[in-house]
Amino acid sequence: MSANLPEEALVPLKDVPKLPMIGPRRKGGRLDVRTVFRWAKTGSGGVVLWTQMQGGQRYTTREALRRFFDAVTRAKSRGGKVETSPLFRASGAEVETKLDRLGF
Q: How sure is the predictor about 34, in pLDDT bands with cuts at 50, 70 and 90?
């Protein structure tokens, strides 16, 4: 997941809980900023939120958040399994064979 920076405005991770697209939590509370940083570091449902460092601060975009939420929804609806490319689905032996053919 990458951002199309000319078209996507950066949002500091610390400001994500304040975005209108982030609905209220249980009992009307706000999303904890630690949750957003966890999404950026380890992800949710095998999906990691796209971020970028700039000037010592970590940023994402509203569009990246939408892509993240869509991907997490798809992953959770498949039982927590994230779609991977055929290369990642290949066994170690298959990967070694492909690399040998390529001369690596």
A: very high
Report residue 7's pLDDT band, with 50, 70 and 90 as the boundaries. Answer: confident
pTM above 0.90, yes or no: no
Q: Which of 25, 68, 65, 31 is nearest to 46 (CA)?
A: 68
Within 6-53, where are the H helices? 33-41
Gap between the Cα atoms of 80 and 74, Å rounded: 8
The CA distance from 24 to 37, in Å, is 18
Query: Any idea of the CA torsion for 69, 44, 38, 14, to the nearest 10 degrees?
Result: 10
Residue 66 region by backbone torsions, left for phi larger than 0, else alpha for psi between -120 and 50, else beta: alpha
Region class of 84: left (phi > 0), else alpha (psi between -120 and 50), else beta: beta
What confidence category does residue 82 fall into, taking pLDDT thresholds of 50, 70 and 90? low
